[in-house]
Amino acid sequence: MKIDHIFLRATRDAPEADLLRAFGLTEGGGNKHPGQGTENRRFFFHNAFIELLWVSDESEVQSETTRPTMLYERLTDSSVSPFGVCFRPTVKGLGIPFPTWDYTPEYMPAGMSIGIGNEVSLSEPMWFWLENGKAPDAAPSDRRQPLEHTAGVLEITSIAITTPMEKKWSDAAQAAVDAGSISIVKDKHHLMEITFDHGFSGLRHDFRPALPLVFNY
Questions:
Q1: How far is CA 207 from the centre of its chain?
Q2: Which member of 114, 127, 183, 215 lies 3.0 to 4.6 Å from 205 by CB, making a disulfide possible if both were Cys?
């Protein structure tokens, strides 16, 4: 499986995105998620994208459909993991490599669903799956998001997640580590370090305290 995209908790309207723009990322189009009660601002790379996600409608995000995702907790409670990692298949049709339940929000096309990792502690990121996920550079030209950045980064090549896990990793977390592009470190704080292009330039940018995020590039 491959990383499709990641999300980070943001405050309303994600002013934190301006820090990514100042770093040298070109912002793509954002989404509103009807029925789910969330919105995002997004930054696209050749193989994956980053979204800054926030609650826009508390009644929707706590609805009967959305409540089981625990998105409300992840996006409002500073004590839990503020991250989500979505995967897509390397080869379609081989099945999901970790146990999931089907989440079908109203904004998804008919017949499609999101596989949400089962029995995942809130101290871990939210792990989820898009069977029909595609790399941003594979999008049709009329739907292509901006992929060029003045910072010079092209692809997300690995992610290191620091988390104060309370118990054994979930099966989804283990599958993420086994896939080879995710590493998990236990510590007292939440942090995501994203490496672009295998850290070719040997540079590092720390977005704390505004975001628990570090870029290696």
A1: 17
A2: 215
170 DSSP 8-state letter: P
Decide if pLDDT at 165 tops 80. Answer: no
Nearest to 82 by CA among 128, 126, 23, 27: 126
Written as six digits, the tokens of 97 are: 């490599």
pLDDT at residue 92 tops 90: no
Rg of the chain in Å (alpha carbons): 16
**What does pTM read for this prediction?**
0.94
Residue 89 is classified by DSSP as -
The total number of residues written for the chain in this structure: 217
- Which residues is 101 bridged to in the sheet? 116
Q: Is the Cβ–Cβ distance between 19 and 62 less than 8 Å?
A: no
* Helix/strand/coil percentages in the chain, nearest 5: 15, 30, 50
Q: Is the pLDDT of residue 166 over 90?
A: no
pLDDT score at 122: 95
- How many whole angstroms separate alpha carbon 115 and alpha carbon 131? 8
> How far is the C-alpha of 9 from the C-alpha of 12, rounded, in Å?
10
Supply 149's token pair: 């950045």
Q: Omega of the bond prior to 209 within 30 degrees of 0, cis?
A: yes
